[in-house]
């Protein structure tokens, strides 16, 4: 009997074009500076440091990276036939044992993360199928445990210059960083209507 798996949810994984050594150094130095002068915000992060969201502030140090993100957003535009705009972004710095609890990003159509400095052993990002708990309860209660296993979380390891883009309604979390080095990333949201103050797509 043929088995069909229906209604997939896309998670896009790619690598950004390489930053120059100077650009990367400027970005990391500016993040180090921000960590010293700003206490950051507490949202999904347990420990670690997260900046406030940048919406209409122009930060020259981050612009080369935003331009590279814009190229990936353009790929999605071509794929879906819809104009997309980078709405906001923020910086995450997770030290040892720091992590992010499960959450979604309301008010946007896509969300993403690009790893500025990270290695695969610094804690995976985990994606959960929508209504997973309800489905697993129902399927398990009628003995369909094999099918319930198809809704297991998807885990993707971090790596410098890796970029992930996914629908904003997907619950996602970040596992603890089990190293002594910080995991540094830039997260962002994408919308499908114009926001005049920030557009990174070249």
Oligomeric status: single chain
| SS element count, helices | 4
What's the alpha carbon Rg, rounded to whole Å? Answer: 18 Å
Label the overall shape: globular
Helix residue percentage: 10-25%
Strand content: 25-35%
Q: Quick one: biggest sheet?
A: 6 strands, antiparallel
SS class: alpha+beta
Count of strand segments: 11
Q: Write out the CATH superfamily name.
A: q2cbj1_9rhob like domain
Distance between the termini: 49 Å
Low-confidence stretches: 198-202
Mean pLDDT: 89
Order of helices and strands: EHEEHEEEEHHEEEE
What is the correct CATH architecture? Sandwich
Structure write-up:
This protein is of the alpha+beta class and 202 residues long. The protein has a single domain, classed as q2cbj1_9rhob like domain (Jelly Rolls, Sandwich), CATH 2.60.120. The strands form two sheets. Strands 1-9-6-11-4-3 form a six-stranded antiparallel β-sheet. Strands 2-5-10-7-8 form a five-stranded antiparallel β-sheet, with no helix packed on it. The longest helix is centred in the middle third of the chain and has 18 residues. The chain starts with 11 loop residues before the first strand and ends in an 11-residue tail after the last strand.
């Amino acid at each position: 009997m043929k088995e069909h798996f229906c209604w997939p949810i896309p998670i896009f994984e790619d690598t950004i074009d390489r930053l120059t050594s100077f650009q990367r150094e400027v970005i990391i130095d500016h993040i180090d500076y921000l960590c010293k002068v700003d206490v950051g915000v507490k949202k999904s992060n347990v420990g670690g440091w997260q900046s406030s969201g940048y919406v209409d502030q122009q930060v020259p140090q981050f612009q080369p990276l935003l331009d590279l993100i814009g190229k990936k957003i353009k790929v999605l535009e071509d794929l879906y036939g819809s104009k997309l705009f980078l709405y906001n972004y923020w910086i995450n710095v997770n030290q040892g044992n720091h992590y992010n609890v499960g959450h979604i990003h309301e008010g946007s159509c896509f969300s993403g993360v690009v790893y500025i400095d990270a290695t695969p052993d610094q804690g995976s990002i985990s994606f959960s199928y929508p209504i997973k708990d309800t489905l697993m309860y129902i399927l398990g209660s009628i003995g369909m445990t094999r099918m319930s296993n198809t809704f297991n979380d998807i885990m993707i390891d971090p790596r410098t210059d890796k970029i992930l883009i996914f629908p904003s309604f997907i619950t996602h979390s970040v596992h603890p960083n089990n190293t002594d080095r910080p995991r540094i990333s830039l997260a962002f949201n994408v919308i499908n209507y114009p926001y005049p103050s920030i557009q990174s797509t070249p």
